[in-house]
């Protein structure tokens, strides 16, 4: 097996950076993972307004995208992605894929989605 396919075989988890309602729903769906392995304690960050800092969101983003080799998809609330937009827009790796999702209080805006912007540039729009 090549090193690329070995690397992809490890990527089996979804990670989440989201508000409490979104994380709760995803955990109820079975997405959560908690481990004793250093650096891989959990695959989610619950962002609580007024308590969670932008630095904590950035650290979780960096950990899920570059620090871990078991994450296939990172789900992030779009309003939280806006807080670290420079990191989200500059991320170019194929894995983990970053998907911006709406939250209960913040609707999805396709004009802000970094993936959609890249697709539009690809097709010359």
Automatic annotation (TrEMBL):
It is a peripheral membrane protein. The keyword Cell membrane does not apply. It holds the Pfam family ATP-synt_F. The keyword Membrane applies. One of its GO terms (molecular function) is proton-transporting ATPase activity, rotational mechanism. One of its GO terms (cellular component) is vacuolar proton-transporting V-type ATPase, V1 domain. Keywords: Hydrogen ion transport, Ion transport, Membrane, Transport, Vacuole. It is found in: Vacuole membrane. V-ATPase is a heteromultimeric enzyme composed of a peripheral catalytic V1 complex (components A to H) attached to an integral membrane V0 proton pore complex (components: a, c, c', c'', d, e, f and VOA1). V-ATPase is a heteromultimeric enzyme made up of two complexes: the ATP-hydrolytic V1 complex and the proton translocation V0 complex. Subunit of the V1 complex of vacuolar(H+)-ATPase (V-ATPase), a multisubunit enzyme composed of a peripheral complex (V1) that hydrolyzes ATP and a membrane integral complex (V0) that translocates protons. V-ATPase is responsible for acidifying and maintaining the pH of intracellular compartments. Belongs to the V-ATPase F subunit family. This is V-type proton ATPase subunit F. It comes from Spathaspora passalidarum (strain NRRL Y-27907 / 11-Y1). The lineage of its organism: Eukaryota, Fungi, Dikarya, Ascomycota, Saccharomycotina.
